[in-house]
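Q: Given only this backbone (187 positions), what sequence would you predict?
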């Protein structure tokens, strides 16, 4: 998964491009992908896998100690990966308390094949500190003196918000993994 700071910037970039206030809450799927990779090498001591993606690229993956069935993975196994990246933006009512929270979880799959889900979620409150109708653009400030500016796709949004408005931004990244044994005749 991406670093939190990258997710933070990407989430707010999305905010700058969408009409955040046409409704009180909007959900956007920023990215979704499905792929299958083949396990090419395993280092049990370092808990790493080298996998070959569908376009022939090789990637090293590190399995944390939370991955309990790592030893069951074999060279030639197929790893099915589903990735989701979603952002929810909510115009915050006046007087509501600001938030700045992050959570992460790894959930093992059920069944005879190794599987699991890793997810990360971050919620912050950001304040609109500048609106520029000429560009059009919006500038936000958030926790720890953070500041971000971005273009807005829909100029009508500028008529529904004002400097000082607050928004809650929640973004979630999730990776779902499942394993299939190698096809007969393969490694």
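A: Predicted residues:
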């Amino acid at each position: 998964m991406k670093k939190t700071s990258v997710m933070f910037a990407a989430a707010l970039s999305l905010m700058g491009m969408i009409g955040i206030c046409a409704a009180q809450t909007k959900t956007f799927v920023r990215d979704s992908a499905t792929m299958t990779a083949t396990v090419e090498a395993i280092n049990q001591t370092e808990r790493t896998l080298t996998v070959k993606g569908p376009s022939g690229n090789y990637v090293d993956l590190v399995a944390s100690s939370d991955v309990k069935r790592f030893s069951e993975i074999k060279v030639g196994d197929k790893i099915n990966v589903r990735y989701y990246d979603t952002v929810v933006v909510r115009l915050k009512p006046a007087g509501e308390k600001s938030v700045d929270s992050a959570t992460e979880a790894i959930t093992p799959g059920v069944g005879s094949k190794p599987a699991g889900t890793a997810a990360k979620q971050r919620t912050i409150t950001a304040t609109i500190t500048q609106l520029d109708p000429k560009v059009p653009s919006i500038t936000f400030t958030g926790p720890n003196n953070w500041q971000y500016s971005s273009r807005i796709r829909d100029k009508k949004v500028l008529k529904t918000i004002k400097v000082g408005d607050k928004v809650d931004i929640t973004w979630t990244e999730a990776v779902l993994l499942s394993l299939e044994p190698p096809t007969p005749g393969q490694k």
